[in-house]
User: Fold this.
Amino acid sequence: MKSCQTRSSRDSNRSELELVRSAFLRAQSRRGVTVCCHVPVLGRCIDMAYVLRSSLVTIEFKLHDWRKAIAQAKDHRLAAHHSYICMPQRSVSDVLLTSLNTAGVGLLFFKDEGKWPFSVHLEAPASNEAWRFAREEAISYVLNNKGKWI
Amino acid sequence: MTRPIVGRHLVRYGTAADQKFLVGALRPTYDGLVVNATMAAHIPTALASFISQMVKKPFFIDPQTHAFQHDVENLESTSSKKAGKIKRSIQALLDAYGEPIATTVGQKRRPVLPSHFASAKVRKGFCERVMRFQLEHLAKRFKSSDAAKYFQFLQAKGKLKTAQCRPGFVIAPYFYMTANTLEKWLRVNLSMLKECQSSGGASVGAQVVISRDVLSSPSLCSTLASKYKSARPDVILVWIDAFPEESASRDELLAFASLLKEFGRTAPTVNLHGGYLSVVLSRSGLVQGLDGVAHGLEYGESRGVVPVGGGIPTAKYYYPEMHVRLLFRDAMHAVRAAGGLKSARAFHRDVCDCVECKKVVKSSPEDDFAAYGKTRPVSFIRRGQPVAMDYPVPETKDHSVRHYMWCKKVEYATAQSVPDVINGLRLAERFKKELGASKVAHCRIWSSVLRALSKS
Assistant:
């Protein structure tokens, strides 16, 4: 599956941190979502995580290096119900899709417009690697640090 | 003459916080201690008391003279209050070792060069002071302490047995050698060794500290082997800069084993920073003369010559089957893959049944194993980026180090045949599916090295 759109010049000038910040500010306003940034889980630092109806969703942002993002997001599966990587809108190669499917990680595209900052390109499957302890710790961190940027 | 190395399992005493892992139930897990001169200079009385009253095992002091050949920045305090000042323990060494480092490093703030040791008189004085520090500093400071009087009183009453606070041998001053600098520093190192040997009174060890690139040069390795053979030290202590056995290549490991073999023919040899492979080489007799392998407690089995500033502590678990420390999340993947989360019994059968794991994993591994990975989150800004890290809580470190020491005891004490070791490593390769090929690659490489050495 290939996306017809490519990354805009605006995206290439933007830093990863700006992407996370923008997504964070808009995601906070959604009802029922408890969102938090820079969530520590088993030695990894998750860019953004939110709890929706008791489910933990984790998101790793990357502008370019999707392989690194997938490796990190794969580790998030120890805690998350669903783990995603998020990139600016881009073409999706077969290699990227295969890697996402193999790792059990979903793909979000960052949206500049609208209240919700993501569009789902590939749905993340429910994690079958979750470890109760890590999940409870991560959810508790998100709930206790609601709306926290750092 | 008695052999200077009396046991294969040597542990490096790093900081005062390590003490609790070297006494009590863990005391029988190792044979002797390697003490850093900086610690001996920093807390001599406490250290002397600890060694002579509690550890009561052979030890030797690494004089760490190489510290003075690197950029002086490495010797400065990093605390905000004392930034730019030379660390107290290093200053104590500068005072004890004297010239030429006292002036060059202490006052001019420049690293020492081979030319600073060109004069025989300078070398003689320096060697005498470095040897004296190793032989007398701890004992002297201890004798003059209040604690000593109390211990003497107990000893007189027959209520306390104490050990001598004198190292088993002294190490001649030494400097780090890379492929580019070997020629000049080797000359200095050998002349220092000769000087110490001529002074008599103690067995003298030669510490050979080299960079990894030396291993890739057969001619340099051969030079080292032949020069130290002629020098006839009582013991040879080897340290390859930042050389974790688990990430070394087959060629590097074969060159390393070959160098150890050569050294082993000259004198009892110790790998000062070694892991499981070194233990197997020593125990199996594949490297004759490799009489000891040392490791630290926290950062363990390899060390860079220049400290990298401590680094960020991470929760790690020594995975016995793979013989390496794994990040806790990787350990979790491995434990799950091994079936160790099914029950405590399964965990002890398939992952680890050491004393600590039996204490920690009692009923539900899913919950209990978390004790090896409990952390506290800390947020901070690094290079303008917000970062949140997990820092292990003290209990996590405690469990992990104890587990590590019990695992090491088994590795050092169990006489496994080389084919059995190779089989074990082959089995451990199955974790590549969960951890990725790079994290288990050492199993294949070590097997290959052991096979090659068995044939040679």
Residues 1-9 of chain A have pLDDT under 50 and may be disordered.
